[in-house]
Specification:
By secondary structure, the protein is α+β, with helices and mostly antiparallel strands. The chain has 5 helices and 7 strands, in the order E-E-E-H-E-E-E-E-H-H-H-H. A hairpin with a 2-residue loop joins strand 5 and strand 6. The longest helix has 10 residues.
């Protein structure tokens, strides 16, 4: 999120870290991989009518929060400490390295700006600390680091499980609510759709080329 400024001040106030109104961030964890934590947003729904009751003198029961995607990252997490000079936490880096099929490129990923007359071309540009710079990765010779390659080998990657948890948003709760939940069958486009989006289902769809997970190894 961009820095905000007051109308009469050109200095940045700071990152927006306040929670969004009438909602709060929750995390759904994998049962198999505890390190997988998918951020969701629980939106508190208002009651029907004037909000004071059901017209018979009885207060209406509180509605269950509506679960939706949360794409705000750590900026709306009151427990997170974000330093823009260090960058975001590379959530997938351990997953990528753990597969053992990548290696680091030699040399630094940072190139110093060109100098003019012995001076930096833009002296006002702040240089980020070297500790925040990650090495550039590439596939080892003979290796393929695409999610499709893993899927076709029958491997369920952490990325697949993360996406499955997110794409299963609300479906299980709707089906388990004895028909009270509203779901739409949608159109399968040839996919063997299931009631729940499982990591194995996602792996099969990626292997067939019907689902794509963008997961550049240098964007962890």
């Amino acid at each position: 999120m961009a820095n905000t400024q007051s109308p009469n001040d050109t200095k940045p106030i700071g990152l927006t870290t306040q929670p969004l109104p009438a909602s709060h961030k929750v995390h759904v964890h994998s049962h198999h991989r505890p390190e997988i934590s998918v951020a969701m947003r629980a939106v508190q729904l208002s009651s029907a009518g004037n909000g004071h009751g059901n017209g018979n003198g009885h207060a209406e029961p509180a509605k269950k929060p509506l679960m939706i995607y949360d794409t705000s990252g750590p900026y709306t997490d009151p427990e997170a400490q974000t330093d823009i000079r260090q960058g975001l936490k590379p959530m997938r880096l351990d997953w990528i390295r753990g597969r053992g099929d990548v290696e680091e490129l030699p040399g630094s990923s940072y190139q110093a700006p060109a100098k003019k007359n012995g001076k930096a071309s833009d002296p006002q540009t702040e240089r980020f600390p070297d500790s925040a710079r990650r090495p550039i990765l590439r596939a080892k010779p003979g290796c393929n680091v695409s999610q499709m390659h893993y899927a076709r080998k029958g491997i369920v990657t952490p990325e697949m499980e993360y996406v499955a948890i997110r794409e299963n948003l609300g479906r299980q709760q709707a089906f388990e609510s004895n028909g009270n939940g509203r779901t739409h069958a949608g159109y399968s486009f040839g996919a063997a759709l299931r009631c729940f989006v499982t990591p194995e289902f996602l792996r099969d769809e990626v292997a067939r080329g019907r689902a794509i997970i963008p997961s550049n190894i240098n964007h962890p």
